[in-house]
Design brief:
By secondary structure, the chain is of the alpha+beta class. Among the domains are: 30 residues; 52 residues, no CATH class. It contains four helices and four strands; from the N terminus they run H-H-E-E-E-E-H-H. A hairpin with a 2-residue loop joins strand 3 and strand 4. The longest helix has 34 residues. It is flat, with a radius of gyration of 44 Å.
Length: 174
């Protein structure tokens, strides 16, 4: 069997290429193996160089924080504003009447003084008071204004429908 020298040269070049590819693949495989051994797979293996808070840190901060608590007292006079923890309470004083369903008035000690909080009352001073014979309006029209209003014609339902059809089309009435 005769061999073609040209084919043998190509086969040798192909074998050399395959050998270089195998060497490269083996080198990549070794690098991947090294990374698999050195890359952390758990948070506990990381260094906390940014000072992130752990679950334990957060739980300790919440436990150490001031929290408001409710305390039912018989009257405002029963609130001891000098107590060391007085500012940590919302003091609940039972109302004498409950028109709104709100059973308690709420108070807090702020800067050493008892202050009412959560008040639902509304200051209506400065609003128009009801006057006999005037209803909700002062009704201070001049005779001229009253005459102008009397001259205005009221549009019928058909006229309003025609205007709406002109603006929005007949589909608006459907």
């Amino acid at each position: 069997m005769a061999t073609d020298k040209n084919k043998l040269a190509k086969l040798a070049a192909l074998e050399a290429l395959a050998q270089r590819a195998k060497e490269h693949t083996d080198a990549v495989g070794e690098r991947v193996s090294a990374l698999e051994e050195s890359v952390p797979t758990k948070v506990s293996q990381l260094t906390n160089d940014s000072k992130y808070q752990t679950e334990t840190d957060v739980a300790a901060a919440v436990a150490g924080a001031d929290h408001l608590k409710r305390k039912i007292v018989t009257s405002v006079d029963a609130i001891d504003k000098t107590a060391a923890d007085a500012a940590q309470y919302i003091y609940m004083v039972l109302k004498s009447s409950t028109k709104t369903g709100d059973k308690y008035d709420e108070y807090m000690v702020i800067d050493g003084e008892v202050e009412r909080v959560g008040d639902w009352s509304v200051d209506l001073s400065g609003y128009q008071a009801k006057e006999e014979g005037k209803g909700l309006s002062a009704n201070d029209y001049t005779d001229e204004d009253k005459a102008k209003l009397a001259e205005l014609a009221v549009a019928s339902d058909e006229e309003v429908a025609q205007v709406l059809d002109g603006v929005f089309g007949a589909a608006a009435q459907a």
